[in-house]
């Protein structure tokens, strides 16, 4: 019977994502669906599966791996002090934005969650509905970081201020309850030991971090498929920290969570993360979620009138505890998005399962109360993502086009400006020749200036741009303006040099400053050679509908995906993949990896949108 139940659970774990993909169920987290299927397979409905000792052990490993991966999800770079010296363009664009960083907003928001959780726990205690004040506070303050990340990834928001804010609130929603659970178990647990022994967990974590950090790069270099040293290190950390945690009377999930944080600070590669996710979410974690559903006997739970009352009350408590975040989020984001972020922050599941598991082992909660808490958490996972997806829309600060300013309006620059203007670029041109102004101002956005001195250009806002193209015929003037623009803080500068002597004199200096230079005669030579060696090059260059693009893939939605399976595979042609400074000639079966640089061709209507999607950090 042990093997049959396990086979059924594993078969269900295999079918669930296939069915969700088939029926396009994207608004429901996979974990929630796995718990629901567990309820159906268990004694609540069909009673096909029973929880045996072997399955319980696999489930325990599942929750340990889940908390380990949760610790690995925390992005500590968000807590680092940000650069305070903004470029002039960043200062200009930030004038109308409230001065609230994601870190500051998230701290304020989660502080309201803590306060409201305390008040709600007190209300339940006074009313007699649930007497354990501290356990209720911990439960109401939990947030499912995994579901938050999944929802933000789906909308490609992790690199934006809104996404970073909600992500940090989710981080606090796991970190703080985990700390609270540890203290709760230490104080009220029958097997608990002295609180100071908990410091041993942190001490061991620090030792492991310091011990393995110098060698981690070495591990990465000699890592191969037959050794998988990074994965061996990960499981060594898990077992070590779980053993230490249990030895000092803490919970094993705390050790697993700290182990995830240690590995995160060791800065593993994306491939390491992906393999750990494969092991966890491919085997152990689905068993844990499905088994959780199996253990929920709704026939017993729903016969109790008090349990039926507690389920909606706990659901409201989960939601109300996060309401204070709305007014904090409104300090920077629009009303609809503040509501969307608040709703998403009310999603809770992972930590609720962990907390309830500990509370049941301590016998501080009844089976009926535990079931009510869990079912209420399930409802938040059904409702909250739907509200978020319905309400969220892009913020104004996320819709700013890339600003490109051209100094010099001539036959070399105007056609380029005209084509860029059709894409996601805000183009402006400047000339000091009245005749050129008369010739081109009807064809492109050209401004006439009397002089091109650095001071005048700065005063006129010409240097307030993301990209500055110095396309003037005067090479010496371009050189002086390039240095002035660099000192001003322009992020990217492209300079035209028709005089090779001037370029020879200043090329090394400009390249050291990060300035990009080009010379028309050399470009023509390169083009002619390309035409001789590849005659089709001319056809590509003459094509007004298509163009060549390059992009670095940093969006996880498109990594570990074969080219033939990309959603936009028919809209572009990928000619080269640059990986670790090596050229790869791709085919349909080539898998796109994180950090790959793609050289592709596509229509000037579709390609910029695809390029932006691939380059959006997620």
TrEMBL record:
One of its GO terms (biological process) is proton transmembrane transport. It is found in: Membrane. Pfam families: Na_H_Exchanger (PF00999), TrkA_C (PF02080). The chain crosses the membrane at residues 54-74, 107-127, 133-153, 165-188, 194-212, 233-266, 278-296, 308-329, 335-359, 371-388. Signal peptide: none annotated. GO terms for molecular function: antiporter activity; monoatomic cation transmembrane transporter activity. Keywords: Antiport, Ion transport, Membrane, Transmembrane, Transmembrane helix, Transport. Residues 536-616 form the RCK C-terminal domain. It comes from the Bacteria. It is a multi-pass membrane protein. GO terms for cellular component: membrane. InterPro entries: Cation/H_exchanger_TM (IPR006153), Na+/solute_symporter_sf (IPR038770), NAD(P)-bd_dom_sf (IPR036291), RCK_C (IPR006037), RCK_C_sf (IPR036721). Belongs to the monovalent cation:proton antiporter 2 (CPA2) transporter (TC 2.A.37) family. This is Potassium transporter.
């Amino acid at each position: 019977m042990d093997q049959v139940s396990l086979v059924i659970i594993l078969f269900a774990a295999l079918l669930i994502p296939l069915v969700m993909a088939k029926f396009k169920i994207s608004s429901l987290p996979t974990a929630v669906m796995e718990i629901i299927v567990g309820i159906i397979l268990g004694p609540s409905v069909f009673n096909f599966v029973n929880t045996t000792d072997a399955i319980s052990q696999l489930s325990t490993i599942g929750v340990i791996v889940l908390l380990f991966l949760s610790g690995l999800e925390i992005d500590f770079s968000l807590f680092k002090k940000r650069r305070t010296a903004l470029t002039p363009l960043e200062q200009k664009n930030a004038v109308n934005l409230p001065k609230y960083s994601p870190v500051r907003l998230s701290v304020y928001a989660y502080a309201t969650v803590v306060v409201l959780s305390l008040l709600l726990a007190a209300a339940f205690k006074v009313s007699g509905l649930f007497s354990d004040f501290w356990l209720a506070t911990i439960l109401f303050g939990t947030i499912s970081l995994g579901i938050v990340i999944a929802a933000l990834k789906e909308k490609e928001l992790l690199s934006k201020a809104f996404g970073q804010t909600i992500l940090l609130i989710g981080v606090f929603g796991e970190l703080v309850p985990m700390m609270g659970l540890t203290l709760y178990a230490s104080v009220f647990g029958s097997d608990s030991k002295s609180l100071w022994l908990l410091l041993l967990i942190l001490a061991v974590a620090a030792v492991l971090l310091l011990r393995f950090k110098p060698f981690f790069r070495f591990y990465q270099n000699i890592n191969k498929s037959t050794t998988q040293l990074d994965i061996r290190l990960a499981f060594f950390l898990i077992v070590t920290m779980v053993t230490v945690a249990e030895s000092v009377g803490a919970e094993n999930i705390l050790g697993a969570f700290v182990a995830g944080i240690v590995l995160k600070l060791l800065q593993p590669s994306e491939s390491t993360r992906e393999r750990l996710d494969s092991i966890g979410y491919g085997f152990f974690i689905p068993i844990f979620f499905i088994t959780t559903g199996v253990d929920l006997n709704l026939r017993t739970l729903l016969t109790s009138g008090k349990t039926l009352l507690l389920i909606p009350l706990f659901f409201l408590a989960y939601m109300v505890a996060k309401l204070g975040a709305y007014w904090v989020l409104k300090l920077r984001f629009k009303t609809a998005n503040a509501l969307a972020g608040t709703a998403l922050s009310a999603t809770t599941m992972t930590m609720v399962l962990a907390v309830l598991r500990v509370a049941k082992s301590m016998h501080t909660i009844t089976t009926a109360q535990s079931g009510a808490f869990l079912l209420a958490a399930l409802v938040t996972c059904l409702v909250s993502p739907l509200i978020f997806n319905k309400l969220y829309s892009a913020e104004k600060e996320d819709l700013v086009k890339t600003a490109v300013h051209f100094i010099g309006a001539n036959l070399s620059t105007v056609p380029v400006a005209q084509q860029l203007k059709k894409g996601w670029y805000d183009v402006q041109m400047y000339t000091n020749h009245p005749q050129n102004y008369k010739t081109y101002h009807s064809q492109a956005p050209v401004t006439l200036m009397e002089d091109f001195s650095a001071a005048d250009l700065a005063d006129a806002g010409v240097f307030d741009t993301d990209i500055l193209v110095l396309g003037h015929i005067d090479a010496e003037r371009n050189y002086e303006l390039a240095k002035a623009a660099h000192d001003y803080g322009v992020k990217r500068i492209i300079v035209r040099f028709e005089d090779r002597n001037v370029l020879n004199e200043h090329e090394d200096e400009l390249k050291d400053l990060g300035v990009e230079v080009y010379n028309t005669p050399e470009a023509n030579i390169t083009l002619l050679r390309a035409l001789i060696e590849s005659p089709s090059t001319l056809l590509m260059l003459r094509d007004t509908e298509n163009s060549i693009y390059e992009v670095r893939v940093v969006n996880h939605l498109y990594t570990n995906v074969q080219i033939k399976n990309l959603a936009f595979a028919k809209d572009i042609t990928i000619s080269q993949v640059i990986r670790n400074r090596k050229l790869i000639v791709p085919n349909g079966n080539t898998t796109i990896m994180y950090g790959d640089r793609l050289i592709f061709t596509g229509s000037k209507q579709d390609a910029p949108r695809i390029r932006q999607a691939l380059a959006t950090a997620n």
